[in-house]
Amino acid sequence: MDVKEAIQKRYSVRSFSDKKLSSDIISEIIKYAHLAPSAGNLQARDFIIVDDIEIKKELSRAALNQEFIVEAPINIVVCANLNRISPYGGRGKELYCIQDSAAAVEHILLLAVDNGLGACWVGAFNENEASKILIFF
Ligand SMILES: Cc1cc2nc3c(=O)[nH]c(=O)nc-3n(C[C@H](O)[C@H](O)[C@H](O)COP(=O)(O)O)c2cc1C
Predict the structure, then answer these.
(1) What is the pLDDT of residues 24-56, one digit of tens each?
(2) Domain CATH for 99
(3) Count: domains in the chain
(4) CB 78 within 8 A of CB 101
(5) What is the whole-number distance in angstroms between the Cα of residue 28 and the centre of ligand 1?
(6) Which of 29, 83, 86, 110 is the most buried (most CB within 10 A)?
(7) Is residue 4 situated within a structural domain?
């Protein structure tokens, strides 16, 4: 699939089958997420893959109870890495690491399409709650 086709086919999917995703597909998606541009190539973003039903339920609660988060076979939590972006000072922390993360999210969405999968960007969630859930993960 070429890039124009993937962009045209992408849309937010909020309903999922219970089919499991292979680790090969997940690895490929993350590989391409890492290839997104990043400020100074510092890669100030990390990816947490969640497939545990209880953690997905907690993440759903932290995201205003958006139920489809639990239904999705995996949640990819894209985290801005504030330490890695520190060479850029305040602009790095307030802007670049968020932009690095957003660029990676778009790659993830397009790779999902390329693999015949659906996905949805979830931005409506409580960061503090999500952090508390994932710190024990
Ligand atoms: C920053 C951002 C945050 C978003 N947060 C949510 C969200 O929390 N829940 C949701 O269902 N969709 C969310 N979306 C998806 C948008 O609703 C969706 O992209 C938009 O309505 C356009 O539809 P499309 O993706 O099907 O083209 C978000 C998208 C972006 C870019």
Answers:
(1) 999 999 999 999 999 999 999 999 999 999 999
(2) 3.40.109.10
(3) 1
(4) yes
(5) 23
(6) 29
(7) no
